Aste57867_14226 protein
Amino acid sequence: MRSKKAAAARIDVDAERDMEKDESNRLKKRDYMRNLMRQYRSEEKKEVGVLKMQITELQAELARRKHVIAATLPPPSQRALLIPWKDVATALRDERQDVEFEHRSLKVRAKELKTLVHLMKQWVSANVTRSALDGVPTSWQNVSLQTNPHSRILGKEWITKHMYHNTDRMFARFVYPDITSTKEFYDFDFEATETHLQYYHRRQYVVDVPMAFMLSAYKQHLCSVLMMDWFGFKEKTTLKEMSGNTTLHQLLTPEDDEWMNLVTGEFHEENGRCVFVIQQIEDDEAAPMDKPQRKRMIWLDMRPLPNGKTKVRVLYKFTQIVKPTGFVSIDEEAADWGCDLHQVADEKKEDMFRQYGVKMLTTLNANHQRKMNDYLTRMMTASPL
């Protein structure tokens, strides 16, 4: 029994000695590796120092040799300092090509401007005085456009600006209610001049759509809006040209074969007011036409209201139908309105036609505001403007 206990004790002592020996070996190995790495780092530092010193020495040697070589060489000649002639020739060739291209471009632009000036001189000098629509001086350039794109744009701008600058004078000449009035105002009349009939259509009302949509309707569906009391909504736009703040609309009406060629201008003011003007172009080189037409001038004063509606003031001035041979007779004009004057004495025709026209348009105007709102609503739902 004692021998077994002694044997176990010896085993424990031996095991403890082995563990101590292993720990001692591990510590010795760690110290060895630490010393080895320290030695490596020291040798690397020495090597880097030696390399830096060699670089410094080599740079100094290079500088010395460059100095020696420079001292032994003769000074450079003026010829050696010059740029090679091939490089100079290439640079001059490129420069010449650039100048020639710019020269050609300037010649083309100068020719275009010369043509434009010539066309505008012709347009302005063709100032054959025409009968004015009651106080607005008009000349041939007010109702004509050329085919040249640049002069065409200038012509449309001049025509519409001329009308815009006469806006307040025209509304003052044809008395209207105060712009703040909430009552709908309507008036229609015409007078006979020595050569033709002139119609005057005045209106002031409120529409239940925002001003922005009103403008879009006039710019996209102008002819349809102008003829709403007679023909109803046509979804197809009549817009043909758009430049800057101007548009051009064209339509040959299927009902009476009347040619409409209308230029418009849109002018916004700081107070929120927008003036929209419309002029019939009677002589258009880009769209020669021998169909009947009417001389037209229209001013619209639009003002947004806080409730999202729009106050509109309109002055619509137009003449009886005119053909290439001149104005039609009062009988033919009245017949176009649906009034038969063939059995009426000549001295009574004007009064008879006036009574008929005023009565017809007054009847049409009875529900104008409701019809306008319905009309614009249909336009809003028919297609996006």
